[in-house]
Amino acid sequence: MAARRTSRKSGPAESIAHIVDLLRGWSPVDARRMFSGYRLFRGGLMFGIIIRDVLHFKTDDDNRGEYEAAGMAPFQYSRGNKRVALGYHAVPAEALDDGDMLVAWADKAYAAAVRKAARGRKRTLARGKRTARGRHH
Questions:
Q1: Does a structural domain hold residue 43?
Q2: Separation in Å, CA 122 to CA 63, 99, 128, 132
C-alpha cells in the first residue's frame, strides 16, 4: 500500500491541522516547522514527521514490522552518494481518513519515542554525564 500525501487539494497548513485534529482526542499534539516539513510532538517527545506532505511515524524494533507488513516504506534521504534511513515509516493512507486508526498508529509511534528517550537517558547516566548544576541527566 502506498503512502498518500497529506494534502489532497488543501495546502500544508490545512493538512497539518487535519492530522492534529484527528489526534486531538488521543493527546494534545504540537506541530513544529522544520526544513521541508513538520515535526509532531506529544509531551515534548517527537513521534512523527511530515516531509513533502507524507506523514511518517517513529519506528523501532517493536513496531517496525507492522509498517513493513502494511508495505510502508521508511523515510530516507540522500547524503552524498548514500541513502540514509531514519527510524520513521510512512503511515498507511487509510489512517489519514480514520481518526481511530491514526491514533492506534500514533500510540505505537509515541511508545517507540518513549523507548528511545529511555535508552538515551540510560546511556547518559552510564557515561556519568552531568548537567551544569552537577546533577546527572
A1: yes
A2: 21, 34, 10, 18
